[in-house]
Design a protein that fits this description.
The chain is of the alpha+beta class. It is 26% helix and 27% strand. The strands form eleven sheets. Strands 5-9-3-17-14-15-16 form a seven-stranded mixed sheet, sandwiched between helices. A five-stranded mixed sheet has the order 11-21-20-19-12, sandwiched between helices. A four-stranded mixed sheet has the order 23-32-33-36, sandwiched between helices. β20, α9 and β21 (355-364) form a beta-alpha-beta unit. It is globular and about 85 Å long. 53% of the residues are buried.
Length: 761
């Protein structure tokens, strides 16, 4: 083991950490077809408990003597609180405590741009007070009795208007998040356009989308003496622990965070929520456990969203299809508090382009705050980039797929580093075959009848290589069960399952002999689960622990049989010598102190000078009814380079989920704001249109073109969560264009937009 500084991309930015890494060098595992468990369609480790109701989610935690919190939120978009009268609420039978800015210490929030309870309210949903009562119903009734006097302020819900406004200041430093745009350039953009023979410029827009995971945000908090115990529905138990400990001035080891099961997050649960700190303060004051559960309206207003975008792209090419220059300018609405709305990474990195300039503005408005949402920036950016590239290809009379291959990037375009692997050409080839690319409309829109079919495609790039620190411990108990402990999370993506597969594979024992323990800060550190980094970070640590355990078992078997290790053979959990079985793992476990059968596994360093990224392409076939404007997605082919498959079944689950989420972004999902009153009009599951099974494509075909990425890590694994969603909307949009011959430049592609575009055309 060694202590190293490492750096890898996580959700919206690079993270740099110092931690222990494994210095073991393992041979790459064989291809999956030669393995017994890894890569196979093995049912979920936790599937049975989830189906029969035994799986305990944070929402299910109920402690003796527990009380309930409910947050009063602003119902206006911008104001300062003049006064709060809590007397009527406080007098309700069962109300125990009410927190407001008047009786609560100041706690900085959102990077010191706000407080836990801030007198300055900046959006519909900002926290005003928190009531604690003996029942949820009493707390909800008491919230309605709080009287708040406001000094209303001017507001703005539109990013462009907020950027131009001279009178509205949402924060003292102005309305640009981080006070300036994010800019990037390489080469000479002006010279690139001067040398171009064809130039195309256009503007595309995307909408704000809400995460809406199945399980709502919630915390249950209890003080045990001076130690704080938190059950939280979170994607990062250590992030919550450190954040709450810092706010309360506690040592981190005095805060324990637990999350055994979770009903999704998609990025909205990557940080501690205000409700967790409120519950901690109330529990301390009342000396009773406190539970705070957000409702679906709060989920839509106050826990994040995918920022919208207005993107203007300009592309300069030679007539042979070589791209010489690309500029990208975007404005994003990130809501009332700092968040990243940039969407230019695909433009910077997807294709080989010598001259590039990007400018991303993230703008404050009086709306709910943006937050990392499954492949932040890439979903929006890929829609605009792949749309205009199709238009450029048409202008120079070139097949769109051939155009992309013409500008294929062999190296990373931002840093110039080599990739650990890149098999995008293979993805293009097989994806085109499976969708029937050669049968697409050669002239877009030239289809007889009112039902018009079309085929489109789009490319994907995302990091997904993970990195250290990430740890997993292994311990064999007296009954021969192999226990794996890691402080990472299973957010519904199959972490329990692939950990059990790796341990069983390396130790050559049945899956039933593996017990996986996750989601507890008392376990060794695991990184937050986001950005497609969990599997490529944790799976190598599990292999490290298992390989070390195997060596220990050799040593123990030698000691117990008095036969030297070099004369021992091992297979299927049994040690033998000269074809005679001697002792198995169960017998070893019974005869040695279980503290001896304990190993620590860690993720190794990433290979210096190389960059691990994921690639892929999705192809869509759609049918557009030009009488109604309705779009039916008939088929999606997803061909991706994401390294070794750990579990074919959970991989397909991930891709199906990502594609459905991308389909919703393409066709139906949208936060709708009332610009006159600054209020969200559809903060519920009825009016916010998440696609259902009736909207699912008739067929989804998943193809992984790589066997493994040997240079990415000792398991050859890369992440799949983000790649699954990135190109879907762009592929559908290009397919719609191929069907009707009219470009829809604004998501979601709703029937009214199609009918209006056809009418104008």
């Amino acid at each position: 083991m060694a202590i190293k500084k490492s750096k890898h991309f996580f959700e919206e930015d690079f993270v740099e950490k110092i931690g222990e890494v494994s210095d073991e060098k393992y041979k790459p595992l064989p291809p999956n077809k030669e393995l017994k468990f890894i890569g196979k369609k093995i049912p979920r480790y936790d599937g049975y408990n989830k189906v029969n109701g035994k799986a305990v989610y944070t929402f299910d935690i109920n402690l003796p003597n527990m009380v309930y919190g409910k947050i009063l939120r602003s119902n206006i978009p911008h104001a300062k609180i003049k006064s709060i009268d809590i007397s009527k609420a406080k007098n309700i039978d069962g109300v125990l405590e009410i927190l407001t800015f008047e009786n609560t210490q100041e706690y900085n929030w959102y990077g010191n741009t706000s407080k836990l309870f801030d007198q300055h309210l900046r959006y519909e949903g900002d926290e005003i007070a928190c009531v604690c009562a003996t029942s949820q119903k009493i707390a909800e009734e008491a919230v309605k009795k709080i009287i708040v006097s406001f000094a209303k302020l001017p507001f703005e819900v539109d990013a462009e208007k907020s950027l131009k406004s001279e009178n509205l200041k949402i924060h003292e430093a102005g309305n640009i998040s981080r006070e300036k745009p994010d800019e990037y350039s390489r080469g000479n953009i002006d010279a690139g356009f001067e040398q171009s023979e064809v130039i195309l410029e256009d503007t595309f827009t995307t909408q704000i989308a809400i995460h809406n995971p199945t399980e709502v945000h919630c915390s249950v908090v209890n003080w045990e003496g001076e130690k704080l115990k938190i059950w939280d529905s979170t994607q990062g138990i250590f992030e919550v622990r450190n954040s709450i400990a810092k706010s309360l001035g506690l040592k981190e080891e005095n805060v324990q965070v637990i999350k055994e099961y979770m009903g999704g997050g998609f990025g909205s649960k990557l940080e501690a929520g205000k409700y967790t700190l409120m519950a901690s303060l109330l529990a301390k004051k009342l000396k009773r456990p406190v539970k705070i559960v957000l409702d679906r309206k709060e989920m839509n207003l106050a826990v994040g969203n995918r920022p919208d975008s207005k993107q203007t792209l300009k592309v300069g090419v030679k007539k042979d299809g070589t791209i010489l220059a690309l500029s990208h300018h975007s404005i994003a609405n990130v809501g009332a508090y700092p968040s990243g709305g940039g969407c230019s990474w695909p433009a910077r990195s997807m294709y080989q382009i010598p001259n590039v300039k990007t400018v991303d503005y993230s703008i404050f408005t009086n709306t709910g705050r943006g937050r990392a949402f499954r492949a932040p920036g890439h979903v929006q950016g890929t829609f605009a980039l792949d749309s205009i590239l199709d238009d450029v290809a048409e202008k120079i009379v070139m097949d769109p797929l051939e155009f992309r291959i013409k500008n294929y990037a062999e190296k990373d375009q931002v840093w110039g580093a080599s990739y650990t692997s890149k098999k995008l050409r293979e993805a293009y080839k097989i994806g085109a075959e499976k969708i029937g690319w050669k049968d697409r409309n050669k002239i877009p829109g030239k289809v007889e009848g009112y039902l018009k079919t079309g085929i489109g495609m789009a490319s994907q790039i995302w990091w997904g290589g993970g990195g250290p620190p990430a740890h997993a411990n292994m311990k064999i108990s007296k009954d021969g069960i192999v226990n794996v402990y890691s402080g990472t999370q299973d957010i519904g993506t199959g972490t329990y399952t692939f950990i059990s597969q790796i341990a069983a594979e390396i130790l050559e024992i049945p899956l039933e002999k593996i017990k996986v323990h996750l989601g507890n800060t008392d376990y060794p550190f695991g990184p937050s689960s986001g950005g497609s980094t969990t599997a490529p970070s944790i799976s190598p640590a599990v292999r490290d622990a298992a390989e070390k355990m195997k060596r220990k078992l050799f040593s123990a078997a030698s000691a117990l049989t008095n036969i030297s290790e070099d004369r021992l053979d091992y297979s299927e959990g049994v040690f033998s010598s000269e074809n005679k079985n001697l002792i198995n793992i169960d017998e070893i476990a019974k005869q040695v102190d279980d503290e001896m059968l304990f190993t620590k596994g860690s993720r190794e360093e990433n290979v210096e000078g190389l960059i691990a990224q994921t690639f892929g392409a999705q192809f869509a076939k759609v049918e557009v009814d030009i009488l109604t404007g309705n779009v039916k997605v008939k088929k999606i082919v997803a061909a991706h380079d994401t390294g070794r498959i750990l579990n074919r079944q959970t991989l397909e689950n991930q891709y199906h989920g990502g594609i459905m989420q991308g389909l919703g972004f393409a066709l139906t999902e949208e936060r709708i704001m009332d610009s006159d009153y600054g209020k969200m009009l559809n903060p519920n599951m009825h009016d916010y249109k998440i696609p259902t099974m009736l909207d699912a494509p008739d067929e989804i075909e998943i193809i992984i073109v790589t066997e493994m990425d040997e240079l990415a890590n000792n398991m050859g694994v890369k992440g799949i969560g983000e790649p699954a969603i990135i190109p879907t909307a762009a592929a559908i949009a290009n397919a719609v264009y191929n069907a009707i011959g009219v470009r829809i430049k604004s998501l979601p592609i709703t029937p009214d937009k199609i009918l209006n575009a056809l009418y104008k055309n």
